[in-house]
Amino acid sequence: QVHLVESGGGPVQAGASLRLSCRGSGRTLSYYNMGWFRQAPGKEREFVASISWGGRSTDYAESVKGRFTISRDNAKSTVYLIMDNLKPEDTAVYLCAADHRLMATLTRDFDSWGQGTQVTVSS
Known about the structure:
4-stranded antiparallel sheet, 11 strands, single chain, mainly beta
C-alpha cells in the first residue's frame, strides 16, 4: 500500500484559505483515485472531496462545494486540497485517502488513510 503523509494544516481565521498537501510514498499514486476526508471531535469521519486517477473527474461534499478544490500532481505523487473561505465548522483533522483499485471509476470508497493534519478555524 502507498504510505500517505498530509501537511499544510494550522490555525486560521474565518474567511482565510489553506492548501493541504498529501504526499504518497512506497508506490506511485498515479493510478489510484484519491480523496480527502475530515473528522471533527466527537463526530464520524466524513467525505470531503475526491479526484480520479487521471484527474479528469472530481467529487465534492455539498458542504464544501464552491469553496474547496482538489487537484493532483502525479509526477510529484501529491494530492492537494485548496480550501477557501474557511468557516469554523470546517475545523477538523483532515485525512488523505487512497483507493487501491487500479484506474477505477471514481467513488467515495477508499481503503487507506494518512494520519491527518489539523485545521482549526476561529470566528
